[in-house]
């Protein structure tokens, strides 16, 4: 099966957020006429501003009769210019702006809302429009009601420990519909500082040993002044005396055949490196890895996770084990691990469970396995489960040299029969939208919107896949579908590309994904995970919220709404580090936040785990079920080998510190094709971290991202210069070298040199 990747998309702008909000409540009613609906409307308008530019989010709510088609209008009063928009057809004439619905969001029932947005530019100031209309009818016209500011405490971290005598960093973000006049910081309810300039921060000193709480309070500049407090965050100041090892949580329940994590850190900064040794006693089926952790004066307060696993056994006993953490000169700590036995408790065949990876084994693709085993040392990973890519219509039936969908499912039945009582999970990538991966060339596909691509996608691609998957003989399998990578995020960030703009204007991506979800999730043993890009694509605030909103409006339009999605996946076929061990987004060097570094570039995330967990919460906030789980593709983000930094840099220059400390060794975070120096990442496992259903290998290691030069093929795959090692880059990767390996074949074809490099640089190392 041809697998296929992605990867390149970048952000629209790196920006700090200054949010403004205006709501126009509409009571106006159109003139009575039998041919027209009575219009009444409400419009909420908010922006994220940076110097010279902004991203606007506009929510239109219908308060009148049901609408079948709408046009939003408003006026810029500060000379602003519309640049590009989404979810509507946008137009600006002089200072007048209109947004006309697309086919998929034109119907608005009474009380229904839709969200649209655009990027714009400004000079001097960026005043809010106030004269909103829908279909020519004014939405109110009363002055907007002043809204209280929003505020969030970003430091200290909840539950963090700080050494006595050391400053405790307090930091907050705040925004308002007008302006934030000040942010106050409180410790244990007492005011300790007031900051009037963003970024809002303070260093609290002289705190006594013991437990404390911190909060922030933001004030606006309205009349009357409104304010709002953040949630209180607990933290601890450790006293003198013997330092200790801190564990959280101190007890874990591990599903049989699965794993959980627990974190360890130190109570206070050490004078030198400290090695914490982990020893397990008790149930022999419970194991812990790694067996030791190293803490330094820089990372002592950052929890390092260990994985606690429980092997399958034949008994029906919930075994227990104790994990003791010890270090010279430190008071130790113990963690209790309890095995959740699953013998005699297998879910009924075909039942739709919360996490399809929990307690299951993974399908091993024999095609990929044979290629991996044929490479020197490859046998060590050849039995790992990888994704099967259905990247064209012909892939469904297969060929004499490539297994089709039914052949893979039949092979999965054989592996399941040899697996005892454990269920088996098989993963398929659904990847054939018209104008597929509209902003790249290496993974373009066979269908085009202009050539009836959407109907072909539905009738010739999704329908046959669904028909095979719902065959009753496959009902015992857990079939995971990864739905259309590189699709919806392109509608947020890459509308300057004609094929992406066409995908937005026609609704092809949105309607195609809705159709796929309706067909696939209707099958009880099929699980749907939507691709959610990665932190180096939508980690900026200008992309983060709009992406989540687009996912929400897309899924809400399916037959089952939010019930049609089991979760989301990030980092598919990409290289973003799972976790940067030597710094976090809150690290400061020489008084500068690491967000100012060229590598981080004002992103709000430095690694994939923190992004995936935060994005999950944002999705839930926008309406998704609280039970959704995240997947992270860890097939090629290990970044081990001799180039992996073993400790944080000692440099006081923020760029030097980040470049010497980061384990992601790409030349630029925008590089995505056959990256030199990359390694295999964490092996697939269920429940590896809070909010995560699994780490998975969706991109089979050794399958090319794209060819290093143009190679004719009948698969619709083009040549992308980002796969050329001599290419000097573009705006998406800061005009940097591509960092790609030479002599690569067409995407999805076997690339032996890449596999060998991934194996050599694996982290954790391949044993």
Question: What do you see in this structure?
Answer:
It is a single chain. This protein has 767 residues and is an alpha+beta fold. The chain folds into 4 domains: 20-138, Immunoglobulin-like (Sandwich); 150-238, Immunoglobulin-like (Sandwich), CATH 2.60.40.10; 245-340, Immunoglobulins (Immunoglobulin-like, Sandwich), CATH 2.60.40.10; 371-579 and 602-642 and 676-712 and 749-760, Alpha-Beta Barrel (TIM Barrel). The chain is 16% helix and 29% strand. It has 12 helices and 41 strands. The strands form 9 sheets. Strands 31, 32, 33, 34, 35, 36, 39, 40 and 41 form a 9-stranded mixed β-sheet that branches. Strands 14, 16, 17, 19, 20 and 21 form a 6-stranded mixed β-sheet that branches. A 5-stranded antiparallel β-sheet has the order 1-2-3-10-6. Strand 19 and strand 20 (227-229) form a beta hairpin. Helix 4 (453-469) packs parallel to helix 7 (508-520). It starts with 19 loop residues before the first strand and ends in a 7-residue tail after the last helix.
Keywords:
alpha+beta, 767 residues, Immunoglobulin-like, six-stranded mixed beta sheet, 41 strands, nine-stranded mixed beta sheet, 4 domains, globular, 16% helix, 12 helices, disordered N terminus
Write the layout of secondary structure elements.
Elements: E1 20-25, E2 41-50, E3 53-62, E4 67-68, E5 71-75, E6 81-86, E7 89-93, E8 96-100, E9 107-108, E10 113-121, E11 133-134, E12 137-138, E13 150-155, E14 160-163, E15 168-175, E16 180-187, E17 190-195, E18 200-204, E19 210-220, E20 227-229, E21 233-238, E22 245-248, E23 251-255, E24 259-266, E25 274-282, E26 286-289, E27 292-295, E28 304-310, E29 320-326, E30 333-340, E31 361-362, H1 366-374, E32 388-390, H2 394-397, H3 405-417, E33 424-430, H4 453-469, E34 478-483, H5 490-493, H6 498-506, H7 508-520, E35 526-531, H8 535-538, H9 541-556, E36 567-570, E37 588-589, E38 592-593, H10 608-621, E39 629-633, H11 654-661, E40 685-686, E41 692-696, H12 752-760
Parallel strand pairs: 14-21, 23-30, 31-33, 32-33, 33-34, 34-35, 35-36, 36-39, 39-41
Antiparallel strand pairs: 1-2, 2-3, 3-10, 4-9, 5-8, 5-11, 6-10, 7-8, 11-12, 13-15, 15-18, 16-17, 16-19, 19-20, 19-21, 22-24, 24-28, 25-27, 25-29, 26-28, 29-30, 37-38, 40-41
Helix pairs in contact: 4-7
């Amino acid at each position: 099966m041809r697998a296929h990747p992605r990867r390149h998309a970048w952000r629209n702008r790196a920006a700090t957020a200054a949010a403004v909000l205006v709501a126009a409540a509409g009571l106006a009613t159109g003139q009575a006429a039998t041919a027209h609906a009575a219009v009444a409307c409400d419009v909420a308008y908010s922006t994220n501003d940076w110097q010279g530019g902004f991203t606007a989010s506009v929510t239109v709510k219908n308060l009148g009769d049901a609408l079948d088609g709408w046009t939003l209008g408003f006026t810029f009063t500060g000379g602003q210019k519309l640049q590009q928009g989404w979810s509507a057809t946008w137009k600006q004439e002089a200072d007048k702006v209109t947004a006309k619905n697309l086919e998929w969001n034109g119907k608005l029932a009474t009380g229904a809302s839709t969200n649209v947005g655009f990027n714009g530019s400004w000079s001097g100031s960026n005043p809010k429009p106030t004269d909103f209309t829908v279909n020519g009818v004014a939405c109110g016209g009363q002055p907007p009601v002043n809204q209280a500011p929003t505020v969030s405490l970003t430091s200290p971290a909840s539950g963090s420990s700080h050494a006595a005598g050391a400053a405790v960093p307090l930091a907050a973000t705040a925004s308002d519909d007008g302006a934030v006049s000040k942010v106050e910081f409180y410790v244990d309810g007492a005011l300790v500082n007031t900051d009037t300039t963003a970024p809002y921060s303070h260093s609290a000193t002289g705190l006594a040993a013991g437990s404390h709480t911190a909060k922030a309070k933001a004030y606006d500049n309205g009349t009357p002044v409104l304010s709002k407090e953040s949630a209180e965050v607990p933290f601890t100041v450790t006293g003198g005396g013997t330092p200790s090892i801190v564990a959280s949580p101190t007890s874990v329940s591990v599903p049989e055949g699965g794993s959980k994590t627990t974190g360890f850190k130190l109570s206070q900064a050490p004078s030198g490196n400290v090695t914490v040794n982990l020893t397990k006693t008790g149930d022999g089926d419970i194991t812990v890895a790694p067996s030791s952790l190293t803490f330094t004066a820089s990372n002592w307060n950052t929890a390092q996770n260990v994985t606690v696993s429980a092997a399958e056994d034949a008994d029906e006993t919930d075994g227990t084990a104790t994990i003791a953490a010890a270090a010279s000169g430190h008071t130790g700590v113990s963690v209790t691990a309890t095995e959740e036995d699953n013998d005699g408790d297998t879910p009924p065949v075909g039942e739709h469970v919360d996490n399809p990876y929990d307690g299951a084994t993974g399908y091993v693709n024999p095609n990929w396995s044979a290629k991996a085993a044929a490479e020197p040392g490859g046998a060590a990973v050849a039995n790992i489960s990888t994704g099967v890519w259905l990247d064209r219509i012909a892939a469904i039936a297969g060929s004499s040299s490539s297994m089709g969908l039914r052949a893979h499912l039949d092979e999965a039945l054989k592996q399941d029969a040899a697996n005892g009582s454990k269920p088996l999970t098989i993963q398929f990538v659904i990847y054939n939208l018209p104008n597929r991966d509209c902003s790249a060339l290496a993974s373009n596909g066979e269908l085009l919107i202009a050539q009836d691509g959407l109907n072909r996608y539905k009738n010739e691609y999704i329908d046959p896949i669904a028909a095979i998957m719902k065959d009753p003989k496959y009902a015992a399998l857990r079939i995971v579908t990864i739905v259309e990578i590189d699709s919806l995020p392109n509608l947020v960030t890459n509308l300057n590309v004609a094929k992406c703009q066409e995908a937005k204007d026609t609704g092809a991506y949105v309607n195609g994904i809705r159709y796929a979800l309706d067909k696939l999730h209707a099958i009880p043993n099929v699980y749907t995970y939507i691709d959610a890009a990665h932190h180096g694509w939508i980690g900026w605030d200008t992309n983060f919220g709009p992406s989540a909103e687009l996912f929400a409006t897309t899924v809400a339009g399916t037959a089952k709404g939010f019930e049609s999605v089991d979760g989301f996946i990030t980092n598919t076929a990409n290289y973003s580090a799972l976790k940067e061990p030597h710094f976090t987004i809150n690290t400061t060097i020489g008084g500068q936040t690491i967000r100012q570094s060229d590598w981080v570039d004002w992103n709000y995330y430095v690694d994939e785990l923190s992004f995936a967990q935060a994005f999950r919460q944002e999705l839930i906030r926008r309406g998704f079920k609280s039970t959704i789980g995240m997947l992270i593709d860890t097939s090629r983000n290990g970044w081990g080998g001799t180039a992996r930094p073993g400790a944080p840099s000692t440099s006081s220059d923020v760029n030097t510190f980040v470049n010497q400390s980061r384990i992601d060794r790409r030349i630029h975070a925008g590089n995505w094709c056959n990256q030199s120096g990359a390694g295999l990442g964490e092996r697939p496992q269920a429940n590896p971290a809070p909010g995560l259903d699994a780490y998975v290998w969706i991109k089979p290691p050794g399958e090319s991202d794209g060819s290093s030069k143009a190679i004719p093929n009948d698969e619709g795959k083009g040549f992308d210069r980002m796969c050329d090692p001599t290419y000097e880059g573009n705006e998406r990767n800061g005009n940097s070298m591509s960092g790609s390996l030479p002599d690569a074949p067409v995407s999805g074809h076997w690339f032996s040199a890449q596999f060998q490099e991934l194996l050599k640089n694996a982290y954790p190392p391949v044993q």
